[in-house]
Write a structure and sequence with these properties.
CATH topology of the largest domain: Rossmann fold
Strand order of the largest sheet: 2-1-3-4-5-6
Number of strands: 12
Order of helices and strands: HEHEHEEHEHEHHEHEHEHEHEHEHHH
Distance between the termini: 53 Å
Amino acid sequence: MIHDMKNLIKKIKGVINAVIFIIINRVLCFFTKVEEKKVLFASDVRSGTGGNYSFILEWLAGKGYEVIYDFKADRRVKRGLRGSLALVYKMTISGSILLEDYFRYITFMKVRKGQQICQLWHGAGAFKKFGFSRAAENEGIRIHKGYRKYAKAIVSAEEIRGCYAEAFRIPKENVRATGIPRTDIFFDEKYIAGKKEELIKEFPVFEKKKVILFAPTYRGVRAEDAAYDFDMLDLKKLYYDLNEEHVFVFKWHPAAYNNIMMNNREVYDLKKYGDFFLDLSWDRDINDLLLVTDILITDYSSVIFDYLLVDRPIVYYPYDLAAYEAGRGLYYDYEAYLYGTVAMDQKELTDAIKAGDMCSQKREAFRKHFMEACDGHSTEKTCRWFFEEE
């Protein structure tokens, strides 16, 4: 009863906030003009630029654009009155609004003449279903209408344009296979050498041992539900099986990380294992870590697409595959995503790590289907479309 009342109060507050946003936005539309050269970078899940944003920002430098920001590291953290008013104003006057994830406020704003909302999305490829694709299979999922307001969205290959058009419910011509800007680093030998040196200097163990990067997606419908089943990951056994030759790095999904820190502190105690376990989840961008990774462990995460460009062994650990496919849904059969070994329990996982099988025969078909547009020039192609074409 108390829980139901809290949910009702939360919904009422959400409706009131939405109405206030709409009113202020519409009033500002009468008294302000759209500034074509003003570009807003907005996110509710990052505290600063990084990922695709960094590459777009570098391209814009010196071209006469004014870049403004509105970042918040956690959706559950409130902006406050001043922050909320500032956000409405920024969204109302910016000629271009660049997103890298779901951003609920788009639902409530009026898209004015001279404005465009561009979606970079945080994941490459097309793996687990999202947006309207996900809602089609689960009536309990509420999808915000803001997806439909995207003027432009980018993808990593021609073959998957339809997946994103469906997810955002926008015309297919609004989706273009420019490649993903952040993947340009995998074609830049100077950057790769410098970043490896930087990371090894910060974490000397990376040079002494093989680096295992554990980067699963999260389970759960909403951020509040995000979790991981630690019964399927025995830290003590991992330590005894692998510590002599490996270092084990955690990179949790941001939503899962927040909840693990709150709810699983007792089981997730890494200090007792010396320097074998490292948690680098605080660094949201994963691509730099991929450069020093020797073996990636994941399940349904889109990191598999970026990691293909590193060309090193990968192990899939989808211990709950049947339940996940039934609840979340995938764009293709799981088999289509495999270019590495599959493990369904921890013994198989440990054996696969030690074997390090490249499964080379599967990689080229995977790259062509999911990552063909990523060629080291994705930033240039993306920005020319966003800012130089009608």
